[in-house]
């Protein structure tokens, strides 16, 4: 089965990981520092980066660093992986889902603003499929309402909005480095922000809430061993072995972006004349590094087309089941019909294979299979 996404690993990646295994450090060491520095440089204009063990950990850490706690409200999109919402719930927040734009599947600005309630701490927008949200507009809306913008950029490292790289656009941005994403550390993620205070809280949260910086300690002159646990935290430390892979992958990001763009153009050309499907488009002002190639078919035909593609060995996916369809939310009283645009998008959506090592011949094969399945 041709997967919908997979990692691209070459000899440079392998050598980097082997060198880390031969070094003195397995877990957090100099390569984590280097990876965080490289990542902050790639984004530019941020106070730094905090590497963590997954995109889920990055979201959890970002919400914690933004001060999300019991009684707070987080407004977000239902067209996402459940972690965008569930990590805020872990901190005691209540989730309010707002609808998406029909064309991009991204959170709709007006719908998000209409969903804001007293106690809204964060607006969490997802760059669906790799298309960056209009973070400038979301940030000013969030600030006007006393909230922060968290950009869930699990799909979109390498993308640009108005020429600015994703990561520099929001109050806080969370990346995922899962193997199917735009670059990988096997499991991994990171938080970036222009706010050094927020990053400091993120750094404490990912490592048990431990503080070692003398200037921040409550008691001084205790001894060189002294440190303090000042807040609740977890162990979300990315190991050096995986940071080594991250450094190598980040250096290949432009190469990955070019290949993903070429594949998307090839799909767009090969599928342009197929009736009954809607192809993804890049909104004005965006240069997406696409994580997904989401096509939309008629609702009534989606299952049949999906199953035919799977029978043809094409590992298509649906991204996503609306988050509140999951029993976790159903049991809390969330009802279907809440966000009709997202529900319709989800009911029509099929993600085609998209990853750098996909060959032109495989792209053509997928396009032919789509043509056959839609015509059947
Ligand atoms: C992948 C993903 C996550 C979670 O990332 P992991 O690294 O798998 O924990 C969060 N949000 C979105 C939108 C994702 O696609």
Please provide a brief summary of the model.
The protein is α/β, with parallel strands linked by helices. It is 37% helix and 14% strand.
SSE layout:
Blueprint: H1 11-21, H2 30-43, E1 48-52, H3 55-65, E2 73-76, H4 83-90, E3 94-97, H5 109-115, E4 120-126, H6 135-144, E5 148-152, E6 160-161, E7 164-165, E8 172-176, E9 189-193, H7 196-205, E10 210-211, E11 228-229, H8 240-250, H9 253-271, E12 286-287, E13 293-296, H10 302-311, H11 327-330, H12 340-348, E14 349-352, H13 360-375
Parallel strand pairs: 2-3, 2-4, 4-5, 5-8
Antiparallel strand pairs: 1-9, 6-7, 6-12, 8-9, 10-11, 13-14
Helix pairs in contact: 1-8, 2-8, 3-4, 3-7, 9-13, 10-13
Pyridoxal-5'-phosphate (PLP) binds at residues 54-56, 80-81, 83-84, 126, 152, 154-155, 176, 178, 189.
Describe this structure in words.
By secondary structure, this protein is of the alpha/beta class. 37% of the residues lie in helices and 14% in strands. The protein has 13 helices and 14 strands. Helix 6 links the parallel strand 4 and strand 5 (148-152). The chain is globular and about 75 Å long. The mean pLDDT is 97. Bound molecules: pyridoxal-5'-phosphate. Pyridoxal-5'-phosphate (PLP) binds next to helix 3 and helix 4.
